[in-house]
Specification:
CATH superfamily of the largest domain: Isopropylmalate Dehydrogenase
Bound molecules: nicotinamide-adenine-dinucleotide, 3-isopropylmalic acid, manganese (II) ion
Number of domains: 2
CATH topology of the largest domain: Isopropylmalate Dehydrogenase
Pfam families: Iso_dh
Distance between the termini: 20 Å
Number of strands: 12
CATH architecture of the largest domain: 3-Layer(aba) Sandwich
Strand content: 15-25%
Catalytic activity: (2R,3S)-3-isopropylmalate + NAD(+) = 4-methyl-2-oxopentanoate + CO2 + NADH
Family: Belongs to the isocitrate and isopropylmalate dehydrogenases family. LeuB type 1 subfamily.
Protein name: 3-isopropylmalate dehydrogenase
Helix content: 40-55%
Subunit structure: Homodimer.
């Protein structure tokens, strides 16, 4: 097949991990006989430096005409407050402009990495969960105001915004263990009371075969590290999903492991590791690219419909990890960690491609 893929390396370690992602995409194209046209564009801090905007119109237009977007990470101390325009605004605008309301963040720790986690192996055994984070609503996108004495961030959710993300999550639950946990703060927040009522109705009426439970977000944060194997699909609002997935990343051993797919009404999607630009390690060639490589697998599956290729990538990543090719954030003490590029090369070799 032919596909146009936009590549936004971004800031910090973004270009380092995305460099391995594009190598992998080219190798998949060659090995399976596809033609992927990869086009790079500036976004985030680099785009601010070039054009004063974190999401230049040309970058957005490229993403809109592409089948999928692969992104590294944006942000860094150079553009921190008091800077007026922030790199992160570009990412939020992109998600909103492409209508990507459902952010899929799977967490399935590799047994070879149990020892790298801060949790005990017996807690990690059998963990295979998927967080579906609402991505274009809530406190991220409400009205903001600030004066000398106070600041204000509105959190707004409409019924329609909740309905569509809950449908997406319940549809995914049907392909898995059919258990859905909706996470909110309905004991305090009005938006959460709406969230809970709508979720209850949508699941009861449209997904009677899916078992629905509700959890308050503070308790969910606890259960995620106490009994993570009990979860199947978790659906939650934008900010709770952001926070809970950084926490859940610790089940996998490192934040560098988790991929994500952001999807909307059509097949176009945005794929990025859940971590940030990691300014503390940027430029040294040591960043963990596995989250990006697994995001490439999600891109192949969700936007291009290439399930066989997605599985081949996931198998190559698993083999590389089992073979002990581990970056500095995962390598056991006393062992030599593998660099970013070395890991990319290992995964390509396991895919049966050499590029
Ligand atoms: P971060 O995820 O960048 O880093 C947190 C810690 O995890 C750091 O110690 C970092 O070195 C480590 N880490 C992250 N990814 C890693 C990888 N692939 N390999 C090895 N170690 C890794 O979070 P932060 O420090 O809070 O944020 C830094 C910047 O990134 C901020 O400007 C933030 O806004 C931005 N950010 C961007 C995204 C995104 O683009 N999607 C996501 C999160 C944070
Ligand atoms: C993420 C990041 C972003 C978010 C920031 C950089 C805007 O933390 O993708 O998880 O909060 O959504
Ligand atoms: Mn985050």
């Amino acid at each position: 097949m032919k596909a146009l893929i936009a590549v936004l390396p971004g800031d910090g370690i973004g270009p380092e991990v995305v460099g391995q992602g594009t190598r992998l995409l080219r190798a998949v194209a060659e090995r399976f006989g596809h033609s992927f046209e990869l086009t790079e564009a500036p976004m985030g801090g680099v785009a601010i430096d070039l054009t004063a905007s974190p999401l230049p119109p040309e970058t957005l237009a490229l993403c809109q005409r592409s089948e999928a977007v692969l992104l590294g990470a944006v942000g860094g101390p150079k553009w921190d407050p008091p800077a007026k325009v922030r790199p992160e605004q570009g990412l939020l605008e992109l998600r909103k402009a492409l209508g990507l309301y459902a952010n899929l963040r799977p967490v399935a720790p590799f047994p070879a990495l149990y020892d790298a986690s801060s949790l005990k192996p017996e807690v990690l055994r059998g963990v295979d969960l998927l967080v579906v984070r609402e991505l274009t609503g809530g406190i991220y996108f409400g009205e903001k105001r600030r004066d000398e004495t106070q600041a204000f961030d509105a959190c707004v959710y409409t019924v329609e915004e909740v309905v569509r993300v809950v449908r997406a999550a319940a549809t995914l639950a049907r392909t898995r263990r059919k258990r859905l946990t909706s996470v909110d703060k309905a004991n305090v927040l009005e938006t959460s009371r709406l969230w809970r009522a709508v979720t209850e109705r949508v699941v009861r009426e449209e997904f009677p075969d899916v078992e629905l439970k509700h959890l308050l977000v503070d308790a969910c944060a606890m259960h995620l590290i106490k009994r993570p194997a009990d979860f199947d699909v978790i659906v939650t609002e934008n900010m709770f999903g952001d926070i809970l997935t950084d926490e859940a990343a610790m089940l996998s051993g490192s934040i560098g492991m988790l991929p994500s797919a952001s999807l909307g009404a059509n097949r176009r999607g945005l794929y990025e590791p859940i971590h940030g630009s990691a300014p503390d390690i940027a430029g040294r060639g040591v960043a963990n690219p596995y989250g990006t490589l697994l995001s490439v697998a999600m891109l192949l599956r969700h936007s291009l419909g290439l399930e066989k290729e997605a599985r081949a990538v996931e198998a190559a990543v698993a083999t590389s990890i089992e073979a002990g090719t581990l970056p500095a954030d995962l390598a056991p003490p006393g062992t030599r960690p593998a660099g970013t590029e070395e890991i990319g090369t290992a995964v390509l070799a396991h895919l049966g491609a050499h590029r």
